[in-house]
Amino acid sequence: MSVSVKSAKEIELMRTSCKILAEVHEELGKALRPGMSTLDVDILAERLIREHDCIPNFLHYNGFPGSVCVSINDEVVHGIPKKSRIIKEGDIVSLDCGCIYKGYHSDAARTYGVGEISPELEKLIEETKNSFYAGIKKAVAGNHLNDICTAIEDYITPFGYGIVRELTGHGIGTCLHEDPAIPNFAMNKKGIRLVPGMTLAIEPMINLGRGDVIFHDDGWTCTTEDGLPSAHYENTILITEDGEPEILTIL
Ligand code: MG
Ligand code: MG
């Protein structure tokens, strides 16, 4: 397995790709409201990405028909945008998308509550985000990949939530999905040593109930097996020379 280490010039391109994506997410979050279809979200996402002279990297990726994955409630990830799928008050909606800027990819996901949601769901969304931050505290040069994975699991376990084990984070650069795979739970190995210039997409997918998931026969949609809601939080980060990682996909 070879993990790409980006040059200073490549890092600048990654930064630009990621900042644009952060702006796109900001706009999508503001636009989300009851009555929108998941296709409406997709049309807006594609327009915003292209307005910034980027290409939506999810569109046609292994045949995916949209520019953003819109996953509602028990849908964990990979929800296909549809005209018939309407977002309702009280839903939680995960938006996952990315851009290509001058050949460099970005990838980030957010989960939003639409209108009023239950305190239980607010907490699920918040702790999913917090588990990302627990993980990236360990995303320090000289540490090993499993330090990140273990930190995410250790953070989430006390809440009794389920960690999705079938899907992982990943390296990112000139490809959307590069090595290494980054599980949100401890591996039985140390994994690669983290080196400045590595860019990684860290993305906990956390279920209110058990971690088991089902992959549907549309070839994409992944839902929780127990039907309970799921949250997703992802950023593209950079391993730096001086300790703290840089989160590239936030403004
Ligand atoms: Mg993503
Ligand atoms: Mg990703």
Strand content: 15-25%
List the total number of helices.
4
Shape: globular
Largest sheet geometry: 5 strands, antiparallel
Q: Identify the strand order in the major beta sheet.
A: 10-9-11-16-17
The strand count comes to: 17
Chemical compounds bound to the protein: magnesium ion
Q: Please give the radius of gyration in angstroms.
A: 17 Å
Order of helices and strands: HHEEEEEEEHHEEEEEEEEEE
Termini separation: 32 Å
Mean pLDDT: 97
Segments where pLDDT lies below 50 for 5+ residues?
Answer: none
Q: Helical residue percent?
A: 25-40%
Fold and architecture overview:
By secondary structure, the protein is an alpha+beta fold. It is built from four helices and 17 strands. It has a five-stranded antiparallel β-sheet, with helices on both faces. A three-stranded antiparallel β-sheet has the order 1-5-6. It has a three-stranded antiparallel β-sheet with strand order 2-4-7. The radius of gyration is 17 Å and the shape is globular. The mean pLDDT is 97. The structure holds magnesium ion (MG) (2 copies). One magnesium ion (MG) is lined by residues 96, 107, 109, 203, 234.
